[in-house]
Amino acid sequence: GPMKTRKSFINRILVRVLIIAMGLSSPSLHGKASPGFISPSQVTAMQKDRESAPIDKIELAKAQEQFKPRPVKFTKKGKAKKQRQPRKTLRYMTYEETKEGKDKLLQSGNHFVALKYQERMLKLCDDLNELEALFLEYADTHRKCNHYDKAAALYNEFVNSYPGSNSTEYALYQAVECTAQLILDAERDQTNTHKTIELADQFLEKADIFAQYKDKVEDIRTNCYKLLVRSEYNIYHFYHYAGDYVQASRRLDGLRDNWIEKLPELEPELLALEYDLAKRQQNLEVAQAKELELAQKFPNAAPVLAQNKPSINFVAKF
User: Fold this and answer.
1) For residues 315 and 244, is the Cβ–Cβ distance under 8 A?
2) Which of 7, 126, 239, 267 could disulfide-link to 244, CB 3.0 to 4.6 Å?
3) For residues 228 and 29, what is the distance between their CA atoms, to the nearest angstrom?
């Protein structure tokens, strides 16, 4: 009757409320949430607003009262009673306590939690020299956590914020390394490859001063060049297979104009492709000239280079 209907309706409502409550209280299914990243602009803002730090310190000093060790109580027999001492959370730690905790975490390899301590220190630190070292350490910790995008942003910010620092070379080198870690393969977007080349160029402009990492940065840049060239070759092969020889020819022209000077070892393959494309366009005069140039400049380069294959099948992909 009506009572049963009412009871079943109430039961359905209760079940829904329980499901919603469980959903709200259940932990994230995606593992650990990443720590609250302090952006480079926030760190810079902290440096500019350093005069407001004493207010934080007064509040912190007041909060220390509740964490003072409690007086020892004794039993009738004279034994000290066991009592729980209040445990200080990160929010109420002094700068020195936070620093000590951070150092222990870094020594034990717990970089993920150490980030939280470093973020707290960045808010409290009012010694500009110590802040510089802490800023760099914070970037290093993100790198060790494989947060390459965040680390690269922080290293770049460090270089801009401390142009006269002794660590500028190290920070700029790490920015190059971190951005290089974000590079995708030749078939995908090459934005980070271009960013890495830009940073490497910035580093190598000061190669006479920055000697320590010069060779490593040059190697990274060369690898970026090769990757961009492979990407261009893949696009060339796409147009080639699609029968769009005009666009294919433009890609080869771009390779010759932009890359031969940087990577002279590309020329045999490029000449062979130019020869092959001219032949397919039935431009026999150009084909003959390219074949002759290839034979004269690179007598050991076999004409079979003209039949090189792309690293993926673009016809299948599209």
Assistant:
1) no
2) 239
3) 38
pLDDT in tens, 96-140: 888 999 999 999 999 999 999 999 888 888 888 888 999 999 999
pLDDT digits 0-9 by tens, 238-274: 888 888 888 889 999 998 898 888 888 888 888 888 8
Residue 220 one-letter amino acid: I
DSSP state letters, the chain: -HHHHHHHHHHHHHHHHHHHHHHHHSPPTTSSPPP-PPPHHHHHHHHHTGGGHHHHHHHHHHHHGGGSPPPP-B-TTSPBPP-PPPPPPGGG--HHHHHHHHHHHHHTT-HHHHHHHHHHHHHH---HHHHHHHHHHHHHHHHHTT-HHHHHHHHHHHHHH-TT-TTHHHHHHHHHHHHHHT---TTS--HHHHHHHHHHHHHHTTTTT--TTHHHHHHHHHHHHHHHHHHHHHHHHHHHHHT-HHHHHHHHHHHHHHTTTT-GGGHHHHHHHHHHHHHHTT-HHHHHHHHHHHHHH-TTS-GGGGG---SS-HHHH-
Q: How far is the first Cα of the chain from the last one, in angstroms, to the nearest whole number? A: 64
Which tokens belong to 246?
Answer: 């005009």
